[in-house]
Amino acid sequence: MNYLDDLAEQMILPACRLVAAVQDRKADQVRELLTPLGVDSLRALAVVLAELIPRDDPATALFTAWKVQDNELPLPKVTAEQAEENRRRLVAEVAEYEAGKRSAA
Length: 105
Prior knowledge:
The chain is mostly helical. Helices cover 68% and strands 0% of the residues.
């Protein structure tokens, strides 16, 4: 692995936390996550987030959803509770993955 690959690997958990903060529209959490990151970390974070876009359906709605208020875009119907649970599961799965990496090292 090269330096940016290693850094991208380290950005998986922060990326998941950022997804949750953005989807919950918590600007303070977004700022807390991004402010301390250096240029290389931000680049690695961008790579990790880009990898989250499905290859089979890179819909424009994915890139414009944050601009639309009141869920006007034809996004899948998910209750607030389901969305919160999905984000919680995402962060928990990645935290478990990170813990496995540490214990294997």
